[in-house]
Design goal:
Elements: E1 10-14, H1 19-31, E2 35-41, E3 53-57, H2 62-69, E4 74-77, H3 85-97, E5 102-104, H4 115-120, H5 122-138, E6 142-147, E7 150-151, H6 152-157, E8 163-164, E9 169-173, E10 180-183, H7 185-196, E11 214-217, E12 221-223, H8 225-235, E13 244-248, H9 250-262, H10 268-278, H11 293-296, H12 303-315
Parallel strand pairs: 1-2, 1-4, 2-3, 4-5, 5-6, 6-11, 7-10, 9-13
Antiparallel strand pairs: 8-9, 10-12
Length: about 325
């Protein structure tokens, strides 16, 4: 077998009971091409598919983590934002000790390689860049960052796009016409599974090595606030007259977010992150980057179909 024929086989995943981790695990299982190990905390009550290997222990124990990662080709890390920062660092150190060649760190979001994004939303750089640097400095593993922008279904359900489906209210920023890139959680899971199905190297097509110590860019579609609101109105069978719509300058929303965050209100980051995603020329597109959707065989999703599912979840209808 030549090096161009080699595919990773053994994948360990952390956070498989979470939102994105669950979708990644689902995609990996559906591929039916991997031996999957799930790492879980001792006190976790989460259950998993019978086809995965479950290893439970303390994320504070480097010996447990190194033992659990022995023989793995890939470590996929998905962690909630509330998890202490040393947890991911422990995982990275253990992966290096176990000689795991590939790591997908806890990226999943905006383009961390875009200086304009890092300047506008400094928390992205603060929270994520250090882990990528740590992987490189240890010199054993190579990382791949998944840039998928904001999760559409998750954000819409929580009202983070300025649209409150239950209350029939919407706050539109500027004129609401700038379309931005976004991705569903499920599309992210599919993308990771198809990425890891690529050969490690290849002279004939895409490979993991193409993305070594780089980001891979994916999305579901481009959509503006106005288009979202119209889709929500179709899904709820309402008309514009049923809604209370207000308008706010986008820069004001972003500034208010900075001020709230500076006062200790973590929700202020919503205005900063989402505002700069709506802002033309900042995080609205993966500027100068190539989407990998075609290389991964990812189809564009339908806005109305996704919105309909979100509305059904909120209103308890099917």
């Amino acid at each position: 077998m030549s090096s161009s024929d080699y595919h990773v086989k053994k994948i360990a995943i952390v956070g498989a009971s979470g939102r994105v981790g669950g979708e990644i695990l689902k995609g990996l299982l559906q591929a039916n091409a991997f031996t999957i190990t799930v790492l879980s905390r001792d006190d976790s009550t989460a259950t998993f598919d019978a086809n995965v290997i479950l290893k439970k222990g303390s994320y504070d124990s480097l010996s447990f983590l190194e033992s659990a990662l022995q023989g793995q080709d890939v470590l996929v890390i998905t962690l909630a934002g509330t998890v202490p920062p040393d947890v991911q660092s422990n995982l990275i150190k253990a992966a290096a000790a176990a000689k795991v060649p590939w790591i997908l760190p806890n990226e999943y979001g905006q383009d961390g390689d875009n200086p304009n994004v890092n300047k506008a939303v400094p928390m992205i750089k603060v929270m994520k860049e250090g882990y990528r640097r740590e992987i490189e400095e240890l010199g054993v593993s190579q990382w791949i960052g998944v840039a998928c922008s904001l999760w559409f279904d998750f954000s819409l359900k929580l009202g983070m796009f300025g649209i409150d489906i239950a209350k029939r209210t919407a706050e539109i920023y500027d004129d609401g016409t700038n379309a931005f890139t976004t991705c569903t959680v499920a599309q992210t899971g599919r993308a990771v599974a198809r990425l890891l199905a690529l050969p490690t190297t290849s002279s004939e097509g895409p490979s993991l090595s193409d993305y070594a110590n780089k980001f891979i860019y994916i999305n579901s579609f481009y959509v503006s606030q106005n288009e979202m609101l119209a889709s929500v109105q179709r899904a709820t069978k309402t008309t514009p007259s049923d809604w209370t719509v207000t308008y706010k300058p986008l820069d004001q929303w972003i500034q208010e977010g900075h001020e709230k965050f500076a006062k200790g209100d973590r929700w202020g980051m919503v205005g900063v992150l989402y505002g700069n995603t709506f802002k033309k020329g900042v995080a609205d597109r993966f500027h100068g980057r190539e989407l990998a959707n075609k290389k991964l065989g990812l189809e564009e999703e339908n806005v109305d179909e996704i919105v309909k599912k979100v509305v059904e979840e909120i209103e308890g209808t099917k």
